[in-house]
Amino acid sequence: MTVFPGFTLPEELRLLGDQIRRFVHDEIIPLEQTIDPDAPELPREDFLRLSAKTKAAGLWTLGAPEAYGGGGLDTFSMCVALEQMSQHRMGLYNPGCGVFGRYPPPAIWAGSKAQIEKYAVPALREGYETFFAITEPSGGSDPAGAIQTRAERRGNKWVLNGRKVFISRAHDAPWGIVFARTDRAKGRAGISCFILEHGTPGFTAKPIRVIRTSAIPNDVSFEECEIPAENLIGQEGQGLDLAFDLLVKNRFPYSACNLGVATAAHRMAVEHAKQRSTFGAPLSQRQAIQWMLADAEVELRACRWLIWEGAWKADRGEDARVEASIAKLYSSEVLGRVIDAAVQIHGGYGVSKEFPLERWYREARVRRIGEGPSEVHRMVIARSLFR
Question: Phi and psi dihedrals of 352, rounded to 5?
């Protein structure tokens, strides 16, 4: 789906956003209010019930290729959709509670037809989680230098040895993608990409307790972990290109979820300021509150345009790495500032688990680290200025 001149949303995309917004408001938010506020996902029966509704409405896996049963939406369109999908309690790390479908790592689409049919298609159809393992104890923001996990070819198998950290969902996902070094002498060209199934001997994943409750990260180890030779994705040595493609493409949807949750927090703050009175006047009449909300509104609008511009550029096939860093950096920091203001405006209610602000506040802190810390993205942006 293309964007009209001036970034005017096509009517069908505007209507899609409205449809998703209504579904989240009518189906997901009321259900979340009946379960543990720290629940990582919906009860299984509710997930299946709501997934059946989104499938019937044509809202399932909108961003997957049409050839494999998806909606075929481009990056820009998915950013518009995800801004709406994420506006609920679990939305930052589980947008739409998964009832709009989930997606395997983009690198799988570089695999063979057999790999796609065996792994990607069932993941799309059934909506289960997968994982990708890049980050290591030596770092995650520089995979070309940090990846030390080794993959050695032995006959018709590859043998993995090494360790990864902060790998979301690795403890229970049916399969995932691992990046490992297959040739130390080739540097950047010596990294390859593999499919790894849960339960493979030599593969262990231990959950790491962090301040978020969804997308649990893991400490992962590989000890003489054997996988079939046909589990190599693409060509040997192609892994780094696939990793960068995955990271850049992920950053716009990631940023759209930041924007969505920040928008929801801002809306709550505006409504609370209208209703709450102190010393005989509504908070909305206090200049201190007005300016907090005005600043948040400006930042949200700027954030939306930065995401849209970068996603639009990526969809045209242009190099959007700097735009991805700008979107991720700004959206994650705006998210933190807007939620912080919303908590302050709500006072004691802002830190009560009866409201989603408390959970958003905790989970938002992770967003300035995940998908590359703010400092690394500033470095990417600065390098582009001096080229």
Answer: -85, 140
